[in-house]
Amino acid sequence: MPTITELNFYPIKSCAGIALREAVLTPAGLTSEHIYDREWMVVDLQGEFMTQREHPTMAQITPRIKDDTLELRAPGMLRLEIPLDLPDPDEAPTIAVRVWDDTVNAYDCDDITATWFSKAIGVPCRLVRFHPHAKRVANREWTGAVEAPTLFADGYPVLIISEASLRDLNQKLQAQGRAALPMNRFRPNLVIDGIEAFEEDYAESIVIGGASLRPVKPCTRCPIPSVDQATGLVGPDPLDILQGYRANAKLDGAIAFGMNAIVLEGEGQILRVGQEVDVKLAF
Asked: Residue 140: CA atoms inside 13 Å, Cβ hemisphere, count?
């Protein structure tokens, strides 16, 4: 029987993730300690989102939930703690920020936090937090009748990858004398073992206890898998290998690896590493 082997969430978009033993499922993705996946985001001084695509050192900004704060560490920096409690909506400053084609209001974290991130990344920037009154939904072209909310994720609540898909890629890399890659290069939320390579591509639904997820869109790949998540250094890009067998006609030939999914049922369900998964194929 397929099982969950990893649960990961990323409090700050494009910074290091947190590996979880269990997580709460919501329509907007995974939560832990009432904190959502991609609830915070780094933006430039124009409010445009920043990622490892242009700033690979973001991989070394490591979050940890600590009591009532989010503790952040980065090489050469004193640790920073930011409060988990939402600010007073009547007093906290907000700014308009942009992530891909969406512009939403967000809480603007304070100047001390902005200075810390600017030094850690090496360019002027600010940290923002998704505003509870803001609304952002996944592309209805892929979700159909389902209005799937998301925060600062690239576009969908949950990213799913199977262990077999990564093994398949690593076999091809090693056949060319290249190093195998860890799963964290692809930054999934949910990792499943016990299915065939790329079987997630053909799943009609993925049922986990009382929760049901539907993979809806292949995940288009950018250069981030070339970034070593431990060091922030850019190395060989696996996209040249993936190009040979993972170009997707539905995405106009873009390279796909993993599936973006939406939540159909199971709000509030607790997902656990080791939990059994029922993958129902679309054929």
From this structure: 4
Query: How far apart are alpha carbons 247 and 77 in whole angstroms?
Result: 40
Give pLDDT tens digits for 122-169. Answer: 999 999 999 999 999 999 999 998 999 999 999 999 999 999 999 999
The answer to whether 116 and 77 have CB atoms below 8 angstroms apart is: yes
Q: Do 83 and 210 fall within a single domain?
A: no
Phi-psi label, residue 145: left if phi above 0, alpha if psi -120 to 50, beta otherwise: alpha
pLDDT at 92: 85
Q: The CATH number of the domain where 264 resides is what?
A: 2.40.33.20
Distance CA 46, CA 72 (A): 24
C-alpha R_g of the chain? 18
Phi (first) and psi of residue 151, to 5 degrees: -100, -110
Q: Is the Cβ–Cβ distance between 269 and 27 less than 8 Å?
A: no
Predicted pLDDT at 66:
92
Domain enclosing residue 115, as ranges = 38-130
Query: What pLDDT score does 215 carry?
Result: 98
Please write the tens of the pLDDT for every residue from 233-265: 999 999 999 999 999 999 999 999 999 999 999
Question: Residues of the chain whose pLDDT is less than 70?
Answer: none
Contact between 9 and 20 under an 8 Å Cβ cutoff? The reply is yes
**Do 159 and 265 share a structural domain?**
yes
Residues 6+ apart with CB under 8 A from 14: 41, 42, 50, 51, 52, 55, 58, 59, 224
The answer to whether 204 and 280 have CB atoms below 8 angstroms apart is yes
Q: How far apart are CA 84 and CA 79, in angstroms?
A: 16
> What letter would DSSP give residue 88?
P
Centroid of chain to Cα 215: 15
Ramachandran quadrant class, 199 (left: phi over 0; alpha: psi -120 to 50; beta: rest):
alpha
